[in-house]
Amino acid sequence: ASDNSASDNSGAERTLVLVKPDGVQRRLVGEVLARIERKGLSLAALQLRTIDAELAKRHYAEHEGKPFFGDLVEFITSGPLVVAVVQGPRAIAAFRQLAGGTDPVEKATPGTIRGDFGLETQYNLVHGSDSAESAAREIELWFGSK
Ligand code: UDP
User: What atom of ligand 1 comes closest to residue 123's alpha carbon?
Assistant: First the structure.
């Protein structure tokens, strides 16, 4: 029988998390992973990778054509990043809560990763899938056998 109690962090929901190149460069990987673990979420996969533009464009396909797209692809491919599959009850929403809003000053509040450590929207340290559909697509994109 399944156990849906709040302390059960074996919940099936999974989300794709990135510590973007700014977070790795600033040595905030441990800080981000500590917050994920303290929240009660679990790591199901974890890698340090440097990605090419093809993967970056596929990951951010929904933003193709927007004014920031080129800079975003350049930034996300600029150095090593950490990619993780994070698992637990309501993992998608829970990580978005930990991350805070996209703009680290106007939207993310203190106490969140972006609110505590970010200043600029592009360099906002982390990514987390925004829906169940995005999570499935992104986990397949980053970890699927292709
Ligand atoms: N971004 C940017 N300028 C913008 C909006 C977004 O540089 O005006 C970057 C930022 O790094 C953001 C990413 O593009 O995290 C993806 O944007 P999205 O709206 O999906 O935000 P998120 O889901 O990451 O909060």
Answer: 11
